[in-house]
Amino acid sequence: MGAGTLTYAVEHTTTLRYSDTVIRSYNEVRLRPPDRGTQRTLSFALSSDPMTEAASRVDYYGNIVHRVDVTTRHRALSLRADCVVQNEPVRLRSPTRWAPGTLRLDPRLDYALASPRVPLGPSTRTLLDEWCGDDRSFNALLHVADRIRTEYRYDKGATTVQSGIDELLAGGGGVCQDFTHLFLAVARHAGWPARYTSGYVAPKDDQKTVEGQSHAWAEVCGTDGHWLGIDPTHGGQVGQHHVRLAVGRDYGSVAPHHGLFYGDAVAAPPEVSVRVTRLEGRVSERPERVTEMMWNQQAEQQQQWSSDQPASAAPFRK
Amino acid sequence: MESVENRGHRPVRSDEVTILAIPPALASDADECVDDAGTVRPAYRDVLEGWAASTRSMEAARATTQRHFTEHGITFGSPNGKPAAIFPFDPIPRVIESDEWTFLERGLAQRAMALDAFVSDCYTSQRALRNGAVPAHLVYSSSGYLRDLVGVRPPRATWCHIAGIDVVRVNGSLHILEDNVRCPSGIVYALEARAAMTAAAPSLIATTGVRPLDEYPERLRRILERIAPRPWDASIVVLTPGPYNAAYYEHRVLADHIGAAIATGSDLIVHEDEVWRRTPSGELARVDVIYSRVNAEWLDPLVFRPDSLLGAPGIIDAWRRGNVAIANAPGTGVADDKGIYPYVPAMVRYYLGEDPLIDNIPTYDLEKPAQLQHVLSSLDRMVLKPVDASGGYGIEFGHLLSAAQREDLRRRICAEPRSWLAQEMVQLSKAVCLTEEGTFEARAVDLRPFVLIDERPWIVPGGLTRVAADTQTLVVNSSQGGGSKDTWVLER
Question: Which helix (H) or strand (E) segment is A40 a member of?
Fold first, then answer.
């Protein structure tokens, strides 16, 4: 653990409640933070109530996905991820944009094109021209994030998880998901590979624990191949206080949970609670490292399932 | 004797059998059957000059084939909820000489191998994209490119087990009109067409020397068994969207032919990454192979469309873990994308190192400004197809549009050039068909041969010859009211 390393404990609980008993449910969660760049996951445990088993895989974007099937009758499902994450200080860089045409043969081109939740229409194109003129540099992107933060109001009631960029543009208000989608559209218009990042914002130095929601921001990739975070909700480049969870072309590829169930019931919107605690001092490394090795060797064995939690659910009815 | 003043299409009586004269106007039009000099092509001599020329045999053939189609309930339903209609059938066969067939077989095998290699490449190393053989942005913007499937290794590393590649003849030479490697339909209609013709003209088939089709079901069964996780006891289901699907008849009959059960999504359930089927008696039976006639994005609501009721949650993970095989593999839609079609000849060169034997129809890449301009300025000679539709839906023929409609189309193309494929309007070859009134008419035809890919491709000798609904219609598609003919590949 180098100087300046910060360690966080994250507890992320998703509870799904059904109007009636369901026969079985299938769930996919993306709750395991990756080991990438300056971030390391020291320990991770996923538990569920009702108790069941999970299998994991790595998706197209490099995210770790767990499949959690509950094959017994239940009226609620609770999924809880506990992890300890370490963040090295982020070296601030100023990457160079890809020259026109150079992305043509690169797989990262996939992040520079429109995606289902980030259409590249004329309205976002106009914003790029208006905000940046001819400037397509990394600094221009920081400016875009700043403009989004100042020109749109943070308003939880203005949009839903299904909302598109148009709703943000029309209503002038939204949340981190909408701000990020808008940022991605403008950055992609400017020729940058840009991806959606989900995660958490950790407490600043004077706080020990924050409770709240997941957060979202963007990452852009320059010619040096590094993905750098930009947060259009808070403005500026992402540093050590952002804990990355999953990346994708847009929200559609990073959703922390989605699922289905068999049964004659209706699912309530999932209840999500997130607690991020800054751990002081030196965190004992050994047990986590062991867990980490096991993780790499046989991910399935790593799950610890407990039954001391409320019961569970899926947002969609089959 | 009837009046000799026949106006071309009228029957001429000779002895007691009425001989239908092929009117000169028709002869010059029916280039599939008649050469430039007006002589019936050798392949068609037995059929047109002897058999079809007699009213009695035509009437009998029509009656027999219609009875066959009605008695067997052979339908191709309209998906708009109209009742499924008896598949219109023309009793005059399409005949293909053996030399031409040999050429077609080689060209189709080549194309199918290249398509399969391409799909496999898209979901593994994407070498053609990094080399620029196929533009990467076309794949990344294709609705058929399913990112969740990248990295999956299906059994035998084959993705496209069954391909239906549409072939048309333009100015005398064969061209590929489109590739279907998702859920190509039509083989059962081809088999039924043969059964109907065998009933109607058994001796003609025997004396002409027509290659049989009946190997197809067994070959299909064999390739499905070979990809099964438990090949010694493979339990196969044909997964159908259900009785409301236009091709349901085919799904049902094909299941019978290959000894498979027919199932809809609600009959399947995934338990511990294995797929099980509820049998009609209510028991659960393990499924090894899904012959899927449901497009991939409907297969698994957990991975793709969450609103789909046509599949079952968990199927994709079961497949990913090798506990069930799916044919065609999910994800093959990327090769069906009409935006990719212009690059299939390049795939043949890239993956096989061969020159394509059968070329595409002249096609324009609307994302290249010069080609876009050319298309916009000559819309009246163009056919515009939506890239992700099939069944002949949404196709615009430039010359049929009013000035206002053309302007509207231009606007739609410019707004989303990636969504359209522009092809020059071509005149498809026409074959002699029998009208309701008992006269002859030349109508446009295409051919859908079926390729099965095992270790090497095998092409059923024949296929579905589709016929335009009338002399003027340009789209040849079963969903657009066209009919079909039996396709005879000559033994020599």
Answer: strand A39-49
